[in-house]
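Standup notes
- DV: blocked on the single-chain target, sequence here:
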Amino acid sequence: MNSLKIVAEYSVINGSFSIITLDLLPKNLPPRRNLAYCFSTTAENMADFLHKAIGALSLDDEEPLVLPDSPQYRVFDENEKSLLGRLLNPECQSMERMIDYMPTAWRVQGRVRGIALSRDRFQFVFQREEDLATVLKDRPWSYNHWAMVLERWSSFPPENFLQNMSLWIRIRHIPADFFTVKTMFRLASEIGEVEEIAYDPEVSHTKDYIRAQVIFDTTKPLKATRKLSTPGKVVTIEFEYEKIHKRCFHCLRLTHEKIRCPMLRKGAQTERRVLLDPVEEVEKAQSKRIATGDKHLDVDHDWDESTVHQFYKGPLPKWYSDQALERDSKKYYVVPESELHDNDWLQLLMEVAFFYKADRCLDAYLPLELNKVVVETLEDYTTEAREKLKADNEIFYITY
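- DV (later): unblocked, structure below
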């Protein structure tokens, strides 16, 4: 008696089967040379049979489950005071930590609870209507420097629910001859559906930009600039985005980092781009410096070491204890968590310092999250300690 185990795997992509045949007979029996041959002659028929059998099956054949229309199965009242949201970059945004952190950022601790609905979707249920309204008014919000979409719960959400977000943008370099509300509206329309232009032509305007509120489609990239044709020349209009900290610096989308940009990967496959080895580039620069005899070829000529105070030179001490930081609050400034998100350059500073010491093995550590930042300066600021962040020279102590 022949004993066989047949493993059949159907590929949806190419519509074919991969079949593996295993002989389950004891190994001490005489080899059966005709076993694989006999099966191979029927493999095609078996594949056809399995293909037809799978094609006859359908998930739609099963009736959908219907739950009773009862408060025991459905949430009614709580949803009226709740927000639904979506993390735009869940690779860099921990759902669990976000739900723990946001009530603190919103200053509603104890008056709201979060619910993780999926890997990127969540809900916050508020006790007070005024808290919910304040959170909506101060959008957009972000976690770990990446934006999230927030909308009020709706019993009948639109098809693109949690796809669009409300943004305030800044428009710069509008020519004087075109400084009108119509021009501002048209330029803001390049970013999204315009809700408001913060400009009154009847009063003085003191900012070097125009603010506009738009509804932005998060499936699209941001725009950094837009060419505007005017009589005699072409002007470059610049766009800035308030409260948007991180984005892909290649395609300008809000959903991934540059290192994971699908457009870069696609370009690497189609154009066969060669990524330069940083060590190789340094060696090339050193060889070029030696060959030209220029000792300062890759040095900033404006840098003057003598202008740096001795306070900022030499080895750095270890991390200070919480007691030491509290005793000398004028010397040290412990950056609060809210300011870590407002000053996105701190994240960049931490990444640069880490990557410098990581010996180019970066993928295993991404994404990095700031934990705590302490700033130390030579000067003692008697007004506000937070001004240390704006000092000309400073020492940063960072945990991540």
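- Follow-up: The first helix runs from residue 34 to 56.
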